[in-house]
Specification:
GO molecular function: pyrroline-5-carboxylate reductase activity
Shape: globular
Pathway: Amino-acid biosynthesis; L-proline biosynthesis; L-proline from L-glutamate 5-semialdehyde: step 1/1
Mean pLDDT: 96
Organism: Velamenicoccus archaeovorus
Protein name: Pyrroline-5-carboxylate reductase
Strand content: 5-15%
CATH class of the largest domain: Alpha Beta
Strand order of the largest sheet: 3-2-1-4-5-6-7-8
Structural class: alpha/beta
Function: Catalyzes the reduction of 1-pyrroline-5-carboxylate (PCA) to L-proline.
Bound molecules: 1,4-dihydronicotinamide adenine dinucleotide, (2S)-3,4-dihydro-2H-pyrrole-2-carboxylic acid
Low-confidence stretches: none
Number of strands: 8
CATH topology of the largest domain: Rossmann fold
Oligomer: single chain
Radius of gyration: 18 Å
Largest sheet: 8 strands, mixed
Length: 275
């Protein structure tokens, strides 16, 4: 994608806002379009970051070559309907659990489609993002997707089979790390995350890279961010992090609690695929 093309963000919530804030720095505010059916949230981004608001989904799709879907999995179908058959676009979904297969079935397998999982450390440019692509994504479009997420942190391309596991470790992980910060030493936290990532099937180098970036990003954001507010924002309603955090209720701030939180988040990602 040339620097002249536009990126549209659908959903101006926790993640949509974090992506917008950082994309303006690399892309320029006049090339970022935003839409949320909650007009207050959309207006807030327009005001704060001088990005362009539009009045509807169709409008956004027509204005942009790359479309980022940042709504909750439970709300995604309305958005997918508008993208049906739009093979002239690059569609990027960051919805937890939603598979390329499901998304492609709804918008058409010829539509270039990226499943990505960033994390809220994107707010301070320290996201750890994973990307998987469907067969319609051409090489330059892979580069575009990588550039979008490199503007908010680090990027790895992974097999889609590992995406739910990645979502648990790196997507929800920041909330678990923040929650345990004062009660478990960071070496122990790291060891548990790496152990769970290996059990999910990541190779050792990838597991360590992903965990180290996620921990460093979380430490960075918490220097200037209230911990409880941060945890709440990572917890999308009905999502993977919420499911993980429940593990601590019975297991408390223990190693076993953290392992179970990571596994429960991964299981919830699998359930979201079926809604
Ligand atoms: N919060 C996080 O740390 C992360 C979230 N995600 C994913 O990002 C997505 C969004 O999560 P959050 O930002 O936490 O949720 P959120 O609830 O804060 O934001 C979602 C926004 O989408 C809007 N929306 C709903 N239906 C819409 C429609 N048809 N058109 C336009 N806007 C619509 C809502 O009004 C809301 O403002 C989810 O799919 C989640 O799995 C991914 C990585 C990390
Ligand atoms: O809790 C959730 O469902 C989202 C996905 C990863 C982080 N937040």
């Amino acid at each position: 994608m040339s620097h002249h093309s536009a990126v549209g963000i659908i959903g101006c919530g926790n993640m949509g806002a974090a992506l917008t804030e950082n994309l303006v720095k690399s892309w320029g505010a006049d090339r970022i379009f935003v839409f949320d059916n909650d007009t207050q949230k959309q207006n807030a981004l327009e005001r704060h970051f001088r990005v362009r608001g539009v009045s509807g989904l169709d409008d956004l799709v027509d204005s942009c070559e790359t479309i980022i879907i940042a709504v909750k999995p439970q709300d995604i179908d309305t958005v997918l309907d508008v993208l049906k058959g739009r093979w002239d676009k690059l569609v990027v979904s960051i919805a937890a659990g939603m598979t390329l297969r499901y998304l492609s079935a709804r918008i058409g397998s010829r539509v270039p489609l990226v499943r990505a999982m960033p994390n809220l450390n994107a707010v301070v440019g320290a996201s750890m993002t994973a990307i998987s692509c469907n067969g319609a994504v051409a090489e330059p479009q892979k580069e575009t997707a990588a550039r979008v997420f490199e503007s908010v942190g680090s990027v790895v391309f992974i097999k889609e089979e590992l995406m739910n596991a990645f979502t648990a470790v790196a997507g929800s992980g920041p909330a678990f790390i923040a929650y345990l910060m004062d009660d478990m030493d960071s070496e122990t936290v790291r060891d548990i995350f790496v152990k769970e990532a290996l059990a999910f099937g990541f190779d050792p180098a990838a597991a360590e890279f992903i965990v180290d970036k996620t921990m460093a990003g979380t430490q960075k954001i918490l220097q200037n961010f209230d911990r409880d507010i941060f945890i709440k924002r990572v917890c999308s309603k009905g999502g993977t992090t919420e499911a993980g955090m429940e593990a601590f209720v019975t297991r408390h701030k223990t190693a076993e609690g953290l392992s179970e939180a990571i596994r429960a988040a991964c299981r919830r990602a699998g359930e979201l695929a079926k809604i």
